[in-house]
Design a protein that fits this description.
The protein is mostly helical. Among the domains are: 91 residues; 65 residues, no CATH class. The protein has eight helices and no strands. The longest helix has 58 residues. 5% of the residues are buried.
Length: 238
């Protein structure tokens, strides 16, 4: 199977090799510095022993330690140079892959852009159906409001406004609440708000009631209950 992001993988592979080499060099430098510290301490110990005891210093051992110290210092110097050059040249070494990286990026983004455009074109039938449904619902609601007002008008001939409210209420249905709830409480709702749409697009999250319906087919307008049922159903499916 061909690697889908071959340009990105090639770039990442090259970068990774350089990073690994730098890590290897830096570890070698740390190890050399550790050894140098040990050698210096041993050399100083010989000199201190001579000063304290008056005994002749072991020149052979001191020469050996001095040579080892010089060797380690030279090794550290070379490692510093290799690290410095590798770090400074890394951007240049990777830059040659930028043209291919850009081509790969454009190719993959064009594919996704076409998919997005197809999805956007496909939205209209769903939006039309949803708004048509809301229109029919609103038509019933307006009819109910009209009847509600006629009955209240008739009742107003023999009752005061408080008795009217007690007997008939304010309106037959709080359709705004039934459809969209109170967003700050995340409570009961059956419709979709702008916030729901943005959350789905940007974060990939769906309202609890919609996620539950997609998973089980159950209709639960209370968002809190829907979220609990969704979590429970998800656990049971594992």
């Amino acid at each position: 199977m061909k690697n889908k992001f071959k340009e990105l993988d090639l770039f990442t592979d090259q970068s990774s090799k350089i990073v690994k080499q730098l890590a290897k060099l830096k570890k070698a430098k740390r190890d050399a510095e550790f050894e140098l510290d040990r050698v210096v301490k041993e050399s100083e110990a010989l000199i201190i022993t001579e000063a304290v005891t008056g005994d002749a210093i072991d020149k052979v051992e001191l020469n050996r330690l001095t040579k080892e110290k010089d060797k380690l210092q030279q090794e550290i110097k070379q490692l510093d140079l290799r690290i410095s050059v590798t770090e400074s040249k890394k951007p240049g070494l990777l830059k040659k892959h930028m043209e291919d990286l850009e081509k790969g990026y454009k190719r993959e983004m064009d594919v996704l852009r076409k998919e997005v455009e197809k999805k956007l074109d496909g939205i209209t039938p769903f939006v039309a159906e949803y708004l048509k449904y809301l229109y029919e619902l609103g038509k019933l609601n307006r009819e109910a409001d009209h009847i509600h007002n006629r009955f209240l008008g008739a009742a107003g001939e023999v009752t005061d406004k408080y008795e009217k409210m007690y007997r008939f209420g304010y309106e037959w249905l709080d359709l705004d609440y039934e459809l969209f709830g109170y967003e700050h409480t995340g409570s009961r709702k059956r419709g979709i708000t702008k916030s729901d749409q943005l959350t789905a697009v940007k974060n990939g999250n769906l309202p609890g009631s919609i996620a539950l319906y997609n998973l089980t087919g159950e209709v639960e307008p209370d968002q809190g209950n829907a979220a609990k049922k969704y979590n429970e159903a998800t656990k049971n499916k594992k």
